[in-house]
Design goal:
Blueprint lengths: L17 H8 L5 H28 L5 H33 L19 H27 L12 H27 L9
Helix pairs in contact: 2-3, 3-4, 4-5
Length: 190
């Protein structure tokens, strides 16, 4: 007989044995790690404000190339901060507990369909973006090779940095391909 009224049925899930309870509960050990990343993000905010203040107060003495390098540094800090947010929010949601943001106007769109595979791809893309900024800064600084104020870039260093960037791109493609292989195939097969 089905009970009448608006009272929900009691939850009838079987109780977990002690070892699975401990193993499943160990996910909460990640919380201090995510809190530490929030502190690290605070450090990046301080770094961003310091660099922004340096740019604003010295803008008249910098040439266009120096301003461009400082702005690229600011963009780099923002992209690393975005990476931190993806790891903090996505990692907590995927590996620790639901954030229960459904219906919240500020809920990130990507959080609706986050899983370990999607999070890896997003992180790989963010790392490629950060690497791109570093590579662009290097290419801009290469023009100073051989000048008295040498930036420290060598031809071998530039080639190595470019090779590392290409490896990041190939790794992201590989991660996306492997993730796609694991996705179910929809549609009729004849």
């Amino acid at each position: 007989m089905i009970p009448s009224g608006d009272a929900p049925l009691p939850d009838r899930r079987p109780a977990l044995r002690p070892l699975p309870v401990v193993i499943f509960g160990s996910r909460w050990l990640q919380v201090p790690l995510y809190l530490g990343l929030i502190v690290a993000q605070g450090v990046y905010v301080v770094l961003f404000l310091k660099e922004l203040w340096h740019l604003v107060t010295h803008a008249t003495v910098f040439d266009e190339q120096q301003i461009m390098l400082l702005v690229l540094g600011l963009i780099d800090v923002v992209m690393i901060s975005n990476l931190l947010m993806m790891v903090i929010v996505g990692g907590y949601e995927t590996f620790v507990s639901r954030l229960r943001l459904e219906g919240h106007p500020d809920q990130p769109e990507w959080l609706d369909h986050v899983n370990a595979g999607a999070l890896k791809i997003k992180l790989a893309m963010a790392i490629i973006g950060i690497s791109s900024i570093h590579l662009l800064r290097t290419f801009i600084g290469v023009g100073n090779l051989g000048s008295p104020d040498n930036t420290g870039y060598t031809q071998a260093g530039v080639i190595l940095q470019t090779a590392i960037h290409v490896v990041f791109i190939l790794s992201a493609i590989g991660i996306a391909y492997v993730d796609r292989l694991g996705q179910p195939v929809y549609g009729d097969r004849h």
